[in-house]
């Protein structure tokens, strides 16, 4: 188990309970928070810290649960503030509140709007991108981000096993680029991992 400081650990546990209750009651998908499962969050934290990632982009902030893990990992590596994109204004507001409660608000820049449009405007370079939003639009976001990725960039995408049909286009786009070594970890809902091969 990843050891977070007591305050962050308590907040993370609280958010897990809140999300489980919210998603059980929500009647529409847009009302659900769809947070990462804890084992996946811990694996993402390990991949970022062990890989000493310093500039990370998250697509799909929701209420900030995963952003707390990502920002905490970047704090451990001495990285730059996380850039996180969320199209739902109410969820972005929740994320900012939760990040402030974790004392990580200065470590995360939450951008509101369409992820595909925002990705095309971001300067980069990013050495890690976490795709956790609309899986259908992920191929377009990947295309916009490829020129903005570091040489050894790490791409992570959740729901590889729970929504194989929806994420298929993204996985095909990653493979078609010919730039990445890939595998899927059977943790949580399935984490697809792609490591960019540095040019010789």
From TrEMBL:
The record, for Pfam families, names: Methyltransf_24
User: Gene3D superfamilies of this UniProt entry?
Assistant: Vaccinia Virus protein VP39
Q: Give the Gene Ontology MF terms in alphabetical order.
A: O-methyltransferase activity
Span of the secretion signal? Answer: none
Keywords on record: Methyltransferase, S-adenosyl-L-methionine, Transferase
Q: Name one GO biological process term.
A: methylation
Q: Does the keyword NADP apply?
A: no
Q: Which InterPro entries match?
A: SAM-dependent_MTases_sf, SAM_O-MeTrfase
Q: Which PANTHER family match?
A: PUTATIVE (AFU_ORTHOLOGUE AFUA_6G01830)-RELATED (PTHR43167:SF1)
Its name, as the record gives it, is Methyltransferase
Give the organism the record lists: Caballeronia glathei
């Amino acid at each position: 188990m990843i050891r977070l400081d007591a305050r962050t650990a308590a907040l993370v546990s609280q958010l897990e309970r809140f999300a489980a209750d919210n998603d059980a009651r929500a009647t529409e998908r847009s009302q659900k928070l769809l947070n990462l499962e804890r084992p996946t969050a811990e694996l993402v934290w390990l991949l970022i810290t062990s890989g000493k990632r310093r500039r990370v982009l998250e697509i799909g902030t929701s209420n900030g649960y995963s952003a707390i893990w990502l920002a905490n990992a970047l704090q451990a590596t001495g990285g730059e503030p996380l850039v996180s994109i969320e199209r739902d204004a109410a969820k972005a507001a929740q994320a900012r509140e939760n990040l402030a409660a974790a004392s990580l608000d200065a470590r995360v820049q939450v951008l509101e709007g369409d992820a595909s449009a925002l990705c095309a405007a971001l300067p980069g370079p990013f050495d890690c991108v976490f795709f956790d939003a609309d899986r259908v639009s992920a191929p377009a976001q990947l295309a916009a981000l490829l020129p903005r990725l570091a040489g050894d960039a790490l791409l992570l995408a959740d729901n590889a096993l729970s929504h194989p049909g929806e994420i298929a286009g993204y996985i095909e786009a990653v493979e078609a680029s010919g730039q990445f070594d890939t595998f899927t970890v059977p943790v949580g809902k399935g984490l697809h991992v792609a490591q960019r091969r540095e040019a010789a």
